[in-house]
Amino acid sequence: MTVWTPTTASEWAPPARDPSSKLYQLPDWPGQFNFRDRGNQWASTEMMLFLSELIFAWYMGPGMVGQRPIGIGDISLSNGHQPGGHATHRDGLRIDFCCMHIMPSVRRYEKKYMITHASPFYDRAAMVAFVTLIRKLLEGRYKVAEIYYNDPAVQAVWPERITSLVNHDEHLHLGLWPGHPYGNNAETLLSLPMPLRQIGF
């Protein structure tokens, strides 16, 4: 099992920004892994702010204790278009997270590696903790469009928001509407290494 160690500001580098679309590419931060191509991981300002909070809070809290990094999938292409295979995921406002599981070597989103909420390798307790954190960071601060995931135990964390949808046994889909709690400070905050930000959760 991978052992996570304390990190420095250089490991939490700020995200690159596309000058045309104004989307941010998700950096390769500690406490996460990318199970889709990084070319598919361009986020809107609100999504990037939320992911900054989520990844850092998870790493510093339950994720580090449980050795469960966040598996991040498709967001959008750099021009704001959806990656192949998606009807949504435009404009950097939609993201997929893979299931938390007890197989740390599995870091690819391929059919033979898919772990669903019915798998014996699924870590339900970690997934519940993860989604509890998601709710804490989103509720009353960001505008949630939709959350899809088919595990009833996880749906119970936020029953008014999390609903079932076909093909969402192995990943959680989150959609946001435009808007965030940082006002005119967003661009400045996203230009700083993570530990130097005054993030507000």
Report what the structure shows.
This protein is of the alpha/beta class and 201 residues long. The protein is built from 5 helices and 9 strands, in the order ββββααββαβαββα. It has helices spanning 45-60, 62-66, 124-138, 152-155, 186-190; strands spanning 16-17, 24-25, 32-34, 42-43, 70-72, 94-98, 143-148, 162-163, 171-177. The chain has a 4-stranded mixed β-sheet, with no helix packed on it. The chain has a 3-stranded antiparallel β-sheet with strand order 1-2-4. The longest helix has 16 residues, at 45-60. The two termini are 30 Å apart. The model is unreliable at 1-6 (pLDDT under 50).
List keywords for this structure.
single chain, 4-stranded mixed sheet, disordered N terminus, 201 residues, alpha/beta
SS elements, strand count:
9
The main β sheet shows up as: 4 strands, mixed
Supply the number of helical segments.
5
Q: How large is the radius of gyration?
A: 16 Å
Helix content: 10-25%
- Sheet with the most strands: spatial strand order: 6-9-7-8
Q: What is the typical, i.e. mean, pLDDT? A: 85
**Contiguous runs where pLDDT drops below 50 for at least 5 residues:** 1-6
How does the helix and strand content classify structurally? alpha/beta
Which percent range describes the beta-strand content? Answer: 15-25%
Order of helices and strands: EEEEHHEEHEHEEH
General form: globular
> How many angstroms separate the termini?
30 Å
SSE arrangement:
Layout: E1 16-17, E2 24-25, E3 32-34, E4 42-43, H1 45-60, H2 62-66, E5 70-72, E6 94-98, H3 124-138, E7 143-148, H4 152-155, E8 162-163, E9 171-177, H5 186-190
Helix pairs in contact: 1-3
